[in-house]
Structure prediction request, 135 residues.
Amino acid sequence: MYSTEDFVGAVLRLTQGSGVAVVFDSVGKDTFEKSLRCLAPRGLLVSFGTASGPIAPFDIFELNRLGSLYVTSPAFVTHTQERSELLRRANALFGAIEAGVVKMEVDRTYPLTEAARAHEDLQARRSSGVGILVP
Prediction:
């Protein structure tokens, strides 16, 4: 868990100090700076969520000091403005799941009538994988 473990230290140990090429960060405020420190030179931080709150303003030249890093914050709507692109991307994802390239842990299932509880569990961080609503 990012709030109790030294994930930067773990990443650097696992990579013999070199860091990783890409970090996907959906947490935001609480992990942004640490996520940067997990990157190898010219690494990319993909910030796609702010579960812990918005990221504070930061000195862009810190990216230079940490190894000429890159940061992006993609929005789903930007990448799926055209229906054809949405379908292409969805088909690629589902194909990768079927092929076993992308593995998803189904953490919980909920009957559709308990959609509110599913949302509450998500907000309260009581889930760590994929939640599925079953009609």
In short: The first strand starts at residue 20 and ends at 25. The chain has six helices and five strands. The first helix runs from residue 7 to 14.
